[in-house]
Specification:
The structure is a homodimer of 460-residue chains. By secondary structure, the first copy, chain A, is an alpha/beta fold. The first copy, chain A, has two domains: 262 residues, 3-Layer(aba) Sandwich (Rossmann fold); 162 residues, Rossmann fold (3-Layer(aba) Sandwich). Chain A has 18 helices and 15 strands. A seven-stranded mixed sheet of chain A has the order 1-4-5-15-10-11-14, with helices on both faces. Chain A has a four-stranded parallel sheet with strand order 8-7-6-9, with helices on both faces. Chain A has a two-stranded antiparallel sheet with strand order 2-3. In chain A, helix 3 runs antiparallel to helix 5 and helix 11 packs across helix 12. The longest helix of chain A is centred in the middle third of the chain and has 20 residues. Chains A and B meet through helix 3, helix 6, helix 8, helix 15 and helix 17 of A and helix 3, helix 6, helix 8, helix 15 and helix 17 of B.
Chain lengths: 460, 460
């Protein structure tokens, strides 16, 4: 190609008129579609009507739509994207030099916005559809606060009320993200709270509890369902979220095509799958359509290994078991990562789309231990400047490993990885790492047997 | 101009080949040059030889050079700039809409790097010249840690040792930036420390002291002077720093020229002057040469009003009085901002270059109170997405005020302001603001008389 000889800049920014106008729905090209969500009471596929009590109508449509390939991005969302997108596609010249690798390393950096991550891509879409539906507001849960921050920003932009249930221990110990959310006008409630039935029940049973994500989800869903004009929104796992996050991969592909770059390996960290699913989407589409082959690697923490050690089965999405059931790679909804696990990526399951693709052999998965992840984070920060989030650093770890393999073999592979966000709110973990107080943890087979026992028995 | 009809994108990014290749030395176009630094012992202008005991040779040359207009940016620094520059010039469409102003508002955003501010522009230059001189490392002081972080990143890139003396109270109460610095391999010492004579002396006299910037400067200078292969570096105030920071204004001007945009008003926050001096440099150059007129507004905290209420006189640059003396607008080296002052911009004096320009009538200055600054910060964050640093929010305050004036008068002014950085490490202050616990403070005339009494008597 004539474009192949262009000098590759350190950072490739698309022009505004080159930015994607559509999201890409990967499901349209999947032969084996992801399994449908099930109603936990009837074990029948959730209908649009059932889902619309919890989610916005348009998002329900997106969630259930396995066929439409391209979704036009509404102009209002395109305009919001212009405030922090396109995100740069960066050539990691300095990391390559440091590693002395013949590999060419690129990363798509999603951290240049106040939410500090890619989460904003879907938050703004979900807030938009809530606004279009004439809703008053939305509810959600948040752990450390990354998703809650993104949603607060999106709701502030559209003038929607935003109620965030924040796991109590995070609310108290990580006040900074809470203050960012308050800056954007969100009401942030420590969970469990006395504002919901389920919260009051849990507080009565366990007066000293510091909360859990499962409980916060239950409170957020109850609040949405019992308040007219409110719906519940979620930042990962769901098909709709992967659809919105396809903007990451679309931009990456447009930028790479512009310079004639073809990645051999595409690497992303995987918790619920929102970033990985978005990053790989258009490349995976080409692979599914038989147009071009790529190697995809999902990277997960060894302490929460849903793809590498989980089961592909229907499971509850939340510990409270109030949400629909999903077929996915899962450790069981009773799985709780070791307390020494520092980063995110602690969800017990994985996006149904990615689970299906993994099960069908289109994607690999690797698990990595957290001290090696922080070593990669520090090495990356020192040469590339950016202080990465622990989650993103899982992808850095494997990107470095792959580049070092190229050094051994002499292969000049082109590696693309997703740098999902910044670590400015994760410095307690960095401090532990610097002080040598960070340890690794791999759940034993017995641990996993116990959490697998929380899988529903009735369906395979 | 034909360019005037181009649609202005939300964000203007220069291409790599459009980025500035030179820094602009504003002094070359000043009729009244900034007064020279004086040796506090002899009251004679500091010679290059005297200065080179403390600073790197090339930086001494830059410090003393009032004549060379354009300094080529060394290729290694240009390469580093490419990792986080060009910084975007953003059209604040959403803020304009929110304010319903006919004004056109632009901001140059310097926060998209791990140091979180423009400080990196000079840190990398100073580290480069230290490396070129074959030095082992550099020393500096830091308060909350913004400058220390930038310098740590720069030193890590060039493999230089970096010793940061961090005011003890910040070291203990603001551990996050300390951890960022450690990630980049810097050694961070709480000041006062027992590693220096001056530190030990102060610890003996005031065993419970929590430290001060003045003391940290003294320790950093002593360490540089007494360790072979080390020099001291400083992040603001100095002429050399303004030279490096001219990259902000150069990029802004190139981007504006490209789209045929001419600012009427240029606004920047002013502490020591590094950002303001850099932002306005090429525009001020045109004004000094009589080519075009602009209105320049320096914005400072009402609690530390060096331009609006200070005296234009020779003063000590540090409370320890070990550094050369500078002629500047100053409140006296004994001035300490009220403890309720939240943001930075707490230096008692102001860059000699900016002081001279202000005294010659080329620039205005305004002081603003901190609760109004945080109100502006929050208003900005909610529509433009970015969570601004308290320092930067001083400029936002006045930009909003000017835009609202345009709303009254109907004038379609073009406003450019400097958004120097992000507020991710300032959330304790945001929390105070949200909780209604933030107050304003304006020093009384008596307060200022007391601090003016610390001015040296011998020279006017």
């Amino acid at each position: 190609m004539s474009t192949e000889n262009k000098t590759i800049p350190y950072k490739i920014y698309l022009e505004e008129n080159e930015m994607p106008k559509t999201w890409y729905n990967l499901r349209a090209d999947m032969k084996n579609k992801p399994a449908p969500l099930l109603n936990p009471a009837t074990l029948q596929p959730m209908t649009a009507e059932e889902l619309s009590a919890v989610f916005c109508d348009e998002l329900v449509k997106q969630e259930l739509d396995n066929d439409t390939r391209d979704y036009p991005i509404p102009q209002e969302i395109q305009d919001f994207y212009k405030m922090y997108r396109p995100s740069p596609l960066v050539r990691a010249y300095c990391l390559e030099k440091k590693l002395q690798t013949p590999a060419k390393i690129y990363y798509k950096f999603e951290g240049n916005n106040t939410s500090g991550s890619h989460k904003l891509n879907s938050a703004i879409a979900q807030a938009y559809y809530a606004k279009m539906q004439g809703l008053k507001g939305v509810t959600t849960e948040t752990g450390a606060g990354q998703w809650g921050t993104a949603l607060s920003m999106a709701c502030s932009y559209f003038g929607l009320d935003c109620k965030v249930f924040m796991v109590k221990v995070s609310y108290e110990q990580k006040p900074f993200r809470r203050e960012v959310m308050r800056t954007y006008g969100a009401s942030v409630v420590p969970s469990p709270s006395d504002t919901t039935q389920v919260g009051r029940k849990i507080l009565a049973e366990f007066p000293g509890t510091t909360g859990s994500l499962g409980c916060a989800i239950s409170e957020a869903v109850e609040t949405a369902v019992s308040n007219p004009g409110y719906r519940y929104v979620l930042g990962s796992v769901l098909n709709q979220v992967l659809l919105h996050q396809s903007v990451i991969g679309m931009e990456s592909k447009i930028a790479m095509d512009k310079y004639g770059i073809v990645p051999d390996v595409i690497i992303g960290c995987a918790g619920g799958g929102s970033n990985l699913g978005g990053l790989i989407a258009p490349f995976m589409g080409e692979k599914l359509r038989g147009e071009r082959d790529y190697q995809f690697i999902a990277v997960e923490p060894a302490s929460c290994p849903s793809l590498t050690r989980g089961r592909f089965a229907y499971d509850f999405c939340d510990t409270g078991k109030v949400c629909p059931m999903a077929k996915m790679y899962t450790l069981g909804s009773g799985f709780i990562p070791s307390p020494n696990h520092a980063g995110g990526l602690r969800y017990h399951g994985m996006s149904s789309i990615l689970s299906q693709l993994y099960d069908d052999g289109y994607m690999e998965a690797r698990s990595v231990e957290q001290t090696s992840v922080f070593r990669a984070a520090e090495e990356f920060a020192r040469v590339e400047g950016i202080l990465p989030a622990p989650e993103s650093s899982h992808a850095i770890r494997v990107a470095i490993d792959e580049a070092l393999k190229c050094k051994e073999t002499g292969e000049e592979k082109t590696i693309l990885f997703g740098l999902t966000g910044t670590g400015y709110f994760d410095l307690v973990a960095y401090e532990k790492f610097h002080n040598g107080e960070m340890s690794d943890y791999i759940p034993s087979d017995e641990d996993l047997q116990k959490s697998f026992a929380t899988l529903p028995k009735v369906i395979g």
